[in-house]
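dude i think i finally got it to work??
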Amino acid sequence: MFAELLNRLTGAAPEPIDTLDSRRALTALLVRLARSDNHYAATEIIRIDRIISARYGLDKDAAASLRAEAEQLESEAPDTVRFTRAIKDAVPYEDRVGVIEALWEVALADGGRDQEEDALVRLVSNLLGVSDMDSAKARQRVDKRP
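look at this
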């Protein structure tokens, strides 16, 4: 089901992707981050659903459906480097900064910072072309939330 999307993202010349595919790909990054510490916690799943519900204006069922598609896409996607670089070419900068903020939300969902998650957020920020300053500001915004 996602082979065509992955081919478009990771081909020699990545093609722009439509809104639904962009949502799937960006949500797959959230899933990849949540799975990075080998503990895909219920708090992380709930946080992902909340993030994509708010970001895309989805109801609870639609958010869960998108996350389920993203879980499958994430499991089929190539390494994080190729996958993330491909997304960089298909998504505007301001949306990529929003993705980094969402990644921080997931990384901090369980109340603490994990080395694997921290490292993945830093890697993804770099690969998405998001500056260290913008990533740090995104984390600070998330830290300040109740």
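The chain has one domain: 18-144.
im so relieved honestly
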